[in-house]
Amino acid sequence: MLRPRLYLLGAAALWSTAGAAIKLSHLDAFQLSSGRSLIAAGVLFLIFPESRRRPNLRMLAVAAAYAATVVLFIFANKLTTSANAIFLQDTAPLYVLLLSPLLLRERPSRGELAAVPIFLLGLSLFFLDQLSPGQFQGNLVALGSGVAFALTILGMRAASTEGSAILFWGNLIAGFGLLTPALSGPSPTLMDAGLLAFLGIFQLGLGYAFFQRGLRDVPAVEASLLVLLEPVLNPVWAFVFAGEQPGPWALVGGSIILLATAWRTVVGVRGTGAAPAKVSAQEKA
């Protein structure tokens, strides 16, 4: 089906705006993390009635992984370059590939297995001329965000009917968890307030809403590959809005990822790989 894959690509497009917006804002990481997540929680609460359900322990576990993903990514962007942060977070498909057969009983197709090194090659080229050996702490934080993102993908795939509620509670965990240090940060300007509203409403709220809708009907490995469109678009917004110009290797890597993303989408629509069987309630437990 084309629609769920388009949802995933739309999510990647919205997510890709984060780097430029974070770099343009003068707010600290606590303020951006807390404010963005609280606004996103409000968006999800208003748009999706199913997000208002009371969580169980499984939902809270996935919500915690999601909260770690969004918080660590902002801290990584403040500690290291935007390129480092997005590249290291997008190692998530590797962890999904390893854990998906164990946790979801979804075995990757040959095409998905073949696509992983292609995507990694594109990502490596994409940031070859931007990565630096320094900023070690920020790189570790970004890597942790990638692990948390993989766990979020796997958890939301297993609990596909609870996705909206997981996102709502995850944003509440992130928002209220960092609210105290956020209140002691610098005073926001009008531009800071606008950027924060954009990040909460569109980049995070609607972005993850699209993501959970698409993840219902797309295997976890393929979903994690499709959203790698995010690091392709990320430098485009960074160049347009923050003046950050990608190097020649980034352009080559971006072209590879775009072609691989289009290929995986077409292959999925044509059904060359059998659609995964729905996981039963007993298998999910």
Walkthrough of the structure:
The chain has 285 residues and is mainly α. It has 15 helices and no strands. α1 packs antiparallel against α11 and α3 packs across α11. The protein is globular and about 50 Å long. The relative contact order is 0.23.
Helix content: over 70%
The rough form would be described as: globular
Question: How many helix segments?
Answer: 15
Number of E strands: 0
Beta fraction: under 5%
Please describe the topology of this protein:
Elements: H1 2-15, H2 18-24, H3 29-47, H4 57-79, H5 82-89, H6 92-103, H7 110-126, H8 136-158, H9 163-177, H10 179-183, H11 190-215, H12 220-226, H13 230-242, H14 248-270, H15 281-284
Helix pairs in contact: 1-11, 1-13, 2-11, 2-13, 3-4, 3-9, 3-11, 4-5, 4-8, 4-9, 5-8, 6-8, 6-12, 7-14
